[in-house]
């Protein structure tokens, strides 16, 4: 998922060689060893294009994932932050899905309750369209401050509007003076290459406020490695974490993890931490994962090659049989799935429930994104679902249109 935006793209990601960045920007001591590479993929996957020609001609770059055996961090070694266009044109919101909205609200309510945040202030770095921050304030917080260049004021409808403040900008040293009782960062850290440098800014932001809690959420790369889920690897995501590598980053910058869980069908990591005051604390469940992650990295290439071959054979067979195939979900997963497989006319079009995507085109492949209601007329034989967590929601929507295509979750 690409929910928020790169907050410190101006920070340097370290010295480069002909192999790209070889030092680990997460532990700043290990070395990255390449294990997966994809050539010429779109540099944006949430910036949909106004025409097919724009989509086909959109800038592309290479992706080369490197693994740090010292801390378990995974990074795009050839990432170039200067190509990004984070702005109000980005369409990263998943708030149109009842499934996702229910999850986000439940998480907001839990965090407010468990970390005693009622009547207090939250700062969200990379707040996207502001929906989650609004949920936290609606759950009892007194004030919310959100920072994100993609925020659009007219898109947010909340009874807590008078308690919210938004800054349409990238987070950097200028904003480390903003003080809050909770610093949230959801689906943003994976967009940042110099992760250790980012955490130093967060530490500076908190300063001596020992009661301030850090609340982060981001994708779990261990699942991606284990399932060879290549559709969850794309250009904007330059940094990939497991529970262990994320907890190690927290500890390295003086934060003691008190929560380390997997949420949303085990797709997302949630972590909470407090300043540790220089006092050591025992590891919690999920931190000691370096051996298992290393093993999955070694197996990834072979599993990916087989899965890629299987998917290409499957969609080619559908085409040969005259079946109509669509992709459900016009976000980052679809961009990666289509471009990595090199799919063209095997896929008729893409559908998405987000109305702001309708009539736009997928960068790299040029597939049009349409309203799911068009399926009433188009009547697909197969629907490739880009996230299995939405299978029940999508099945019910299709049944409501009198359709019963084969649904293939990735």
TrEMBL record:
Any Pfam family hit: Methyltransf_14
**What positions does the domain C-methyltransferase occupy?**
294-400
Swiss-Prot/TrEMBL GO biological process terms: methylation
UniProt KW keywords: Methyltransferase, Transferase
Is Methyltransferase a UniProt keyword of this protein? yes
Under the heading CDD domains, the entry gives: AdoMet_MTases
Q: Which GO terms describe its molecular function?
A: methyltransferase activity
PANTHER family listed in its UniProt record = TRANS-ACONITATE 2-METHYLTRANSFERASE-RELATED
Tell me what this protein is called: Methyltransferase domain-containing protein
List the source organism. Answer: Pelagicoccus enzymogenes
């Amino acid at each position: 998922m690409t929910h928020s935006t790169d907050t410190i793209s101006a920070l340097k990601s370290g010295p480069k060689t002909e192999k790209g960045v070889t030092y680990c920007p997460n532990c700043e001591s290990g070395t990255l060893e390449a294990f997966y590479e994809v050539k010429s993929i779109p540099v944006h996957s949430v910036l949909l294009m106004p025409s097919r020609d724009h989509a086909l001609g959109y800038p592309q770059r290479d992706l080369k994932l490197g693994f740090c055996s010292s801390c378990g961090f995974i990074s795009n070694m050839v990432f170039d932050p200067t190509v990004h266009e984070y702005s109000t044109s980005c369409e990263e919101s998943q708030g149109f899905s009842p499934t996702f909205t229910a999850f986000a609200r439940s998480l907001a309510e839990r965090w407010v309750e468990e970390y005693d945040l009622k009547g207090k202030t939250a700062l969200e770095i990379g707040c996207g369209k502001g929906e989650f921050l609004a949920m936290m304030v609606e759950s009892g917080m007194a004030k919310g401050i959100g920072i994100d260049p993609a925020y659009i004021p007219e898109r947010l409808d909340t009874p807590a509007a008078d308690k919210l403040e938004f800054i349409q900008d990238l987070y950097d040293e200028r904003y480390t003076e903003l003080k809050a009782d909770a610093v949230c960062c959801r689906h943003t850290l994976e967009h940042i290459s110099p992760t250790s440098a980012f955490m130093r800014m967060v530490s500076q932001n908190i300063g001596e406020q020992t009661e301030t809690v850090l609340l982060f959420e981001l994708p779990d790369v261990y699942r991606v490695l284990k399932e060879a889920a290549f559709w969850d690897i794309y250009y904007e995501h330059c940094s990939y974490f497991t529970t262990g590598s994320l907890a190690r980053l927290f500890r390295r910058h003086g934060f003691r993890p008190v929560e380390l869980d997997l949420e949303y069908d085990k797709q997302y990591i949630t972590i909470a931490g407090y300043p540790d005051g220089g006092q050591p604390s025992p590891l919690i469940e999920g931190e000691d994962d370096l051996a298992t992650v290393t093993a999955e990295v070694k197996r990834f290439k072979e599993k990916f090659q087989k899965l890629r071959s299987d998917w290409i054979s499957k969609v080619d067979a559908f085409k040969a049989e005259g079946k109509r195939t669509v992709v459900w979900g016009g976000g980052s997963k679809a961009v990666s799935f289509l471009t990595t497989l090199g799919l063209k006319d095997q896929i008729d079009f893409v559908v998405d429930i987000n109305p702001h995507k309708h009539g736009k085109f997928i960068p790299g492949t040029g597939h049009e994104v349409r309203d799911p209601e068009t399926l009433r007329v188009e009547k697909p034989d197969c629907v490739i679902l880009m996230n299995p967590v939405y299978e029940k929601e999508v099945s019910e929507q299709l049944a409501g249109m009198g359709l019963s295509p084969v649904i293939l979750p990735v």
